[in-house]
Design goal:
Low-confidence stretches of chain B: none
Distance between the termini of chain B: 45 Å
Strand content of chain A: 5-15%
Order of helices and strands of chain B: EHEEHEHEHEHEHEH
Distance between the termini of chain A: 55 Å
CATH class of the largest domain in chain A: Alpha Beta
Number of helices of chain B: 7
Number of domains of chain A: 2
Structural class of chain A: alpha/beta
Bound molecules: cobalamin, pyridoxal-5'-phosphate
Oligomer: heterotetramer
Mean pLDDT of chain B: 95
CATH topology of the largest domain in chain B: Rossmann fold
Number of domains of chain B: 2
Mean pLDDT of chain A: 95
Helix content of chain A: 55-70%
Largest sheet of chain A: 9 strands, parallel
Strand content of chain B: 15-25%
Largest sheet of chain B: 5 strands, parallel
Number of strands of chain B: 8
CATH architecture of the largest domain in chain A: Alpha-Beta Barrel
CATH superfamily of the largest domain in chain B: Cobalamin-binding domain
Chain lengths: ~525, ~250, ~525, ~250
């Protein structure tokens, strides 16, 4: 199947997205956030929690923030203590909190930079080695056939999640996502250790990641199929969760500032800054990101606002490119969300899915099942999911979230996952080459719908470029939700970097960009 | 259907009174003849007759069943009583006229998703200008001042703003019901309202896909609205309740 | 959607079907059956049962058979008594059974013929008037949008069938079929009166037809939509049930000798003879027939034997044409029966459905849901039915039997019909114009499959033409079932018509054919 | 699954032991809040906890429900005993060798769908040369003489032919089970066999999608075969049973 779409509109949209991202990025590069700093500490080896259960990275960053020291970067201060006391990063962290910095004679930045750059290079190369091992594993074991079947577990208890995930893998899942407990995205810290009490999901913690990864590696070896693990990095701790994900061998992360802004009312500047650092890490560690445009259609109408999904994907693509990500790592999100009562709704769904496919040919698209229009009649839900699976197979989607029978009722039952797989397996087989065999009529409903969405997306990007991204969001252009750039959760965690701010990881990861960054500083002065 | 004895209704498969029901469930036992038998025993144990397991699927460690069986118990339908919000529903214009005529002032309502709930689509459907399925929301009502606080509003904030705005009614949406999150959150709201001495003054209304009027009144709210409710339903209720209270 | 198929193969197949039918028809026209004679009696006004519950038409025909008198035709003898005693047909029937014929002085054939021709013309015109009234009703009330939703009721009790059928109509059914009780097709008589005890279906009786027709007319008027009524005429009483159907305003009849031969082991010559008379009546009364090729795929493999369905449809079409039927009345049957575990099975289903559509553009095709590959997992069944509904919408089928959730378990529950309608309504709306919007790739899997089926059907017809239809059936060419022409149920009910056989209905209905018929007689002498 | 107490297994929704089950059924009452309540009362009456009706659909005169509820009863899985046909299953060639070695003669089996049942696909799958799903049928077994009488065979005919052919085993397929048609028909067959004094001589086997070994033995047959049985299953059983009987 191939849609006759206008390549110049795609080009124009890409150009607009670049222009939209540019001013945002130059602003972002001037600032850092508490979460980035905590991520840096984690990367340098600070971990664990204090007696009250507060993570050491938070203790350190809070201390620095309270004492007006954060703008030079947490790495800078950690370096001072490490070099001064010749101790581990972990020990240095508790020293900082105990007030040691006031007792230390500050070393020149150059010395700290030397230490930090070496440590960072070591840590990055260690994590990259892990990444290589994992890539090899993926290649040796092989991945399932596309679309990859993506299933969620969400019991709230990691020890109950694990056997359920393992069973799902045995039944045929290619990807397992552990949903986070409601509200974790608004916590400005990452909980610690294995956890057993979550609501509608399980806490994202390093240990939970580790336990699940281990279990999936075991079952993957048994099955001779690599099982990917996903978690959620959007929210206030995006950079830190990315670090934990890299440390624990996760393959994918839900990672989207726009999602946090719109659906979690997170401050725009905070989360875009977090996202950039987080994506630098993802690019480096080969973590596939999943973006959240699919969510727009849960609040906005899928027919009227379909183009906002595409427009946002162009922007998300640009932000990812600017962080050095390759298209192969961009799991751009979209969804099958058209009202089942709409005449020719299936045609619209095919048009949209194929359009996104053609616009982003190299991205491993993340395709979401119907959710909003699912109701408590589980048979009806199964029919809707059947068509979703059909369209996914026809249009060659990559990351395929399985539709759940009880979507309108509760988080999935064991049997919902099983039935979801049964349905997808049926469709992916019975309709395997359907997409190749059918052609869309020129000038017909499907082709027109695709054209309409594409040109509306381009027009929208023109407007956003005129107004600026922040103003467009404030005006409710995305998902019909308005968010102002000076409001939202976590905004106090953003700060302007001082001139001699130090973060060895972004320095190394930005590469080329670093130069531009410094040029901007120069220009500012 | 003719000839139905409403004092004794049973599930109806293909023959009146055959009692036929469909079931599906998972048992944490390995798939096989023993599992099949266990599924039957379970249904027999719950008092069903002639259980037939029509599908048994190996879920690798657990087993999924689809079954049919006969339900011997009957329900006395003629005795079923359901408390409902019982009041006439007016159109937007009628509501506005009623407010103008009977109250002579704007009615203030304040709404939001409280607690950890971030599902705003429902409350937006009720409150936002645009409304839902062609039914305008409360913001469009000339007689109503509608303030929508959005998602994840702490109960304390909701009550504080209600006092500040002099709200006539609080509209709370609750979508997440897992682990009884809504029950805990709503009970807490009522406690705060009582502590503030507001419970009698302000009309407290809840809504959501798994909310019923019965459930709402049990928790101490004035009314509850389930799926397929629109702005005019809650507006009609609130306005008539205000008129009633004014008269008393 | 349009398949690039070779029109010369279609033409060739039609020619072969004509050649296959020709010798069979000339044989058929030499003979009659007990059921045809009973149908003639019914048309002339004989009805009811005796004290033992035996229908009067059976009493008369049995008497004539036992006394070696049947070969002149039941009408001939009935006429003798009616004219002699100047009594009603009904009274004449009991007179015959009481032995009156032996006491009567036989009138010359010409006189009987005069009486019979007048009576037949009266009866036919009366029934045709009914038909006109019904056509008007159909037009005034209008029919639902295609594909027409066809639902079965099968409680065994007409008084339980009725409210269920009425509810189905209210829910959106366009066509109601009352399934017959297991085994009725092998009864060599039609039961009488309203009935309440059937197994897996309800007895087909005139009164049951009448009661259901009345109920559906009422609900149709209420709904402003004409609801069609269907019953089953295949089996030993094909001609009689056709008469009852015409008398009681049925719109469609399952009518297929091949079905009876293969699936009920009915004697070939008996049922083909019955079928011809029955179809003459259908043609005259505007009753749409439904053929049973779909059943082949319940015993034979749908991929390997798909072409047998098409070949049989060509033959069935020919037999229908020879009975004066227009394509508009030919509900040729086919089915969605490919193993859901087959890779690209959906492509095969699309190819087959579209092929049949193109080969018979004017026939109101009857499309059957998956049955054989449905199992007791009702969710899986719902997914299969979703695709069936999709293909039906895409390929513009006409008479669409709704797939039932519990197909593998028991005859439908009330809720199975409801869920069936929900599914079909969803698909027919969401995919309404999908067929128009998609084109099949030339030389692709779908096109090739269609070509393969068509050319295999043509080859099969070549072979059948060579061997003769009876031999082909004996060799198991249809549905993988072998039936010999001198075996099977009801074979004793066939007889050679005598030279002066009289049947005023076939005389009038055959029209042109009558001449050929007499020419054959002449040639034989 | 780990940590499962097999003496007390309950349905498993998303949390071990949560008892969650899915239901669907029709009640012959008009759609509305009262119907919804009746559905809940019905489930409570059958001993379920926390029933939630998730869908209520108006079927014009009757109402269809989808519901979820918690099943409080548990099953003692460790005590479940299922009688099964317990014998090794051999491949076709092994069966033939066994016959040659142990019996030294051809085994005759006669089969068909009896009574009003015309569903021959199952018995054909077992008997016809071609077999089913890549498993050859009995006709292909060199050691077996297989006679398939086809559809709707009267029990009397079946028994008469068995005598005439000197059959070692009778294979009966029963697919139609509506209104217990199979029970009546199979009981009648056993009675005829007994009346003819054949019951001990001939091996009587039944099969079909809703047949279990337990059911078969309860009715007095030697074995019962359900879905997914193949020729080698029944051949292995028959031959070993013949050998056993010969030795006794
Ligand atoms: C859209 C959606 C989301 C969106 C929400 C976006 C937004 N801004 O609202 C996003 C993607 C963000 C989301 C996230 C989550 N969701 Co959500 N989501 C849904 C979904 C698909 C649709 C809900 C919806 O919008 N319905 C449409 C509206 C119009 O219907 P409604 O709310 O019932 O409103 C009507 C009536 O109820 C009534 N009404 C409602 N409120 C009020 C108030 C008053 C005063 C009145 C009078 C009437 C009234 O009037 C409305 C119009 O008729 C449902 C599944 C489904 N199909 O139902 C899941 C669902 C509700 N979500 C669920 C969950 C668990 C979550 C998460 C917790 C998952 C996670 N762990 O990450 C998160 C976190 C959200 C949170 N903190 O609350 C569960 C809830 C399970 C349960 N029973 O508790 C569901 C059922 C999905 C599932 N099966 O897991 N979700
Ligand atoms: C094909 C079919 C037909 C075909 C039969 C063609 C034929 N020559 O067999 C036709 C179209 C003619 C037909 C007609 C009818 N059918 Co029918 N049919 C089916 C269908 C779709 C498939 C059955 C099948 O072939 N399965 C495949 C075979 C291979 O499976 P199997 O029989 O289970 O066999 C396996 C095992 O059970 C076992 N086995 C079976 N027999 C034996 C015997 C021995 C000795 C052994 C060892 C093993 C064994 O081994 C086999 C291979 O593993 C089912 C629905 C379904 N999906 O199941 C309905 C179904 C069986 N039919 C049904 C009905 C009611 C009818 C009719 C009565 C309807 C009517 N009123 O007109 C008629 C009349 C038939 C009659 N008199 O018996 C009902 C039965 C309901 C019930 N529980 O009683 C069903 C379930 C459909 C429904 N939901 O209504 N049917
Ligand atoms: C991009 C993205 N991030 C995160 C989430 C989940 O976020 P939270 O944990 O905040 O509910 C989603 C929701 O599905 C998402 O699409
Ligand atoms: C053409 C045709 N006639 C008749 C029937 C039903 O026949 P019987 O009543 O013999 O089961 C069918 C089966 O569905 C059929 O397809």
């Amino acid at each position: 199947m191939h849609l006759p779409i206008d390549p110049s509109l795609i080009e124009r949209s890409r150009l607009l997205a670049e222009r939209i991202a540019r001013p945002v990025l130059s602003q972002i590069k001037l600032q850092s956030t508490v979460s980035i700093e905590r991520a840096v500490l984690r990367l340098l080896g600070v971990d664990g929690v204090d007696r009250d259960g507060i993570p050491w990275p938070n203790r350190v960053v809070d201390y620095l923030l309270e004492n007006g020291m954060l703008e030079r970067g947490a790495a800078y201060w950690l370096g001072q203590v490490v070099l001064d006391q010749n101790c581990s990063a972990q020990l240095a962290a508790s020293e900082i909190v105990r007030g040691s910095l006031s007792r230390i004679k500050e070393k020149p930045l150059a010395e700290i930079r030397e230490w930090g750059d070496v440590r960072a290079a070591e840590r990055l190369s260690f994590l990259r080695q892990n990444r290589e091992k994992r890539s090899e594993k993926r290649e040796t074991l092989g991945l399932g056939q596309k679309p990859w079947k993506y299933l969620i577990v969400a019991t709230g208890n990691i020890y109950e999640d694990i056997p359920q995930a393992v069973a799902a893998a045995r039944q045929g899942a290619d990807i397992i996502a552990v949903i986070r407990t409601t509200g974790q995205s608004l916590l400005d810290y990452v909980p610690y250790g294995p956890t057993t009490e979550g609501m509608g999901g399980t806490y994202a913690t390093g240990e939970n990641f580790h336990l699940m990864r281990q279990a999936l590696d075991e079952v993957g070896a048994e099955l001779g199929r690599y099982i990917r693990l996903v978690n959620y990095a959007s929210g206030l701790c995006m950079p830190e969760i990315t670090v934990l994900a890299a440390q624990n061998g996760l393959d994918m992360l839900l990672n989207d500032a726009l999602y946090g802004i719109l659906f979690r009312d997170i401050n725009i500047r905070r989360t875009l800054t977090d996202q950039h650092f987080s994506r630098l890490l993802c690019a480096s560690f080969g973590i596939t990101i999943n973006t959240g445009e699919d969510n727009y259609l849960t609040t906005a109408d899928a027919v009227e606002e379909g183009h906002t999904v595409l427009a946002s994907q162009f922007i998300n693509e640009r932000f990812a490119l600017e962080a050095g990500m390759k298209p192969e790592l961009m799991g751009l999100g979209h969804a099958f969300e058209i009202d089942p009562n709409r005449e020719d709704g299936l045609l619209d769904e095919i048009a949209m899915a194929q359009l996104v496919r053609q616009v982003f040919p190299d991205a491993p698209l993340k395709y979401m099942p119907p959710t909003k229009h699912i109701n408590g009649n589980v048979f009806r839900a199964y029919a809707q999911n059947t068509l979703f699976n059909l369209v996914s197979a026809m249009t060659h989607q990559d990351i395929h979230l399985l539709g759940m029978l009880t979507e309108a009722i509760h988080t999935p039952f064991l049997s919902d996952r099983y039935l979801g797989l049964l349905n997808a397996d049926y469709l992916f087989k019975t309709a395997r080459h359907l997409g190749e065999e059918l052609e869309v009529k020129e000038g017909g409903r499907i082709a027109l719908r695709a054209e309409e969405v594409l040109s509306a997306a381009t027009s929208m990007l023109e407007e956003v470029e005129q107004a600026g991204l922040f103003e467009a969001i404030a005006a409710g252009r995305f998902a019909a939700i308005c968010r102002k750039s000076d409001e939202g959760k976590g905004k106090d965690g953003v700060f302007l970097k001082s001139e001699n701010y130090f973060n060895p990881f972004s320095d190394q990861l930005e590469g080329r960009e670093k130069v531009i960054n410094q040029a901007t500083f120069a220009a500012k002065k | 259907m003719n000839n139905i004895d409403l004092t004794k209704v049973r599930p109806y498969g293909d023959t009146l009174d055959d009692g036929m029901m469909q079931f599906s469930f998972t048992l944490p036992v390995p798939c096989g003849p023993q599992a099949m038998e266990a599924a039957k025993v379970l249904l027999l144990g719950q008092g069903f007759e002639n259980p037939a397991v029509t599908a048994m699927e190996d879920m690798k460690g657990t087993t999924y069943f689809v079954a049919y069986a006969r339900c011997p118990k009957a329900v006395n339908f003629s005795e079923i009583y359901v408390p409902t919000v019982d009041f006439p529903v007016f159109e937007m214009e009628e509501v506005n006229e009623l407010i103008a005529k009977e109250l002579g002032r704007k009615v203030t309502v304040i709404g939001g998703c409280t607690g950890s709930d971030a599902h705003t689509v429902g409350i937006d459907a009720i409150m936002n200008m645009k409304g839902f399925h062609g039914h305008y929301g409360l913001e469009r009502y000339s007689g109503i001042r509608a303030i929508n606080l959005g998602a994840q509003v702490p109960n304390e904030t909701m009550v504080a703003r209600a006092i500040q705005e002099g709200a006539d009614a609080i509209l709370v949406s609750q979508v997440v019901t897992q682990k009884n999150a809504h029950v805990n959150n709503l009970t807490n709201l009522i406690e705060i309202l009582e502590a503030e001495g507001l419970r009698q003054k302000v009309i407290a209304v809840i809504g959501g896909p798994r909310i019923s009027h019965e459930f709402a009144t049990e928790l101490g709210f004035d009314a509850g609205f389930g799926p397929h409710s629109y702005a005019e339903d809650v507006a009609s209720f609130v306005v008539q309740e205000l008129i009633r209270r004014k008269k008393n």
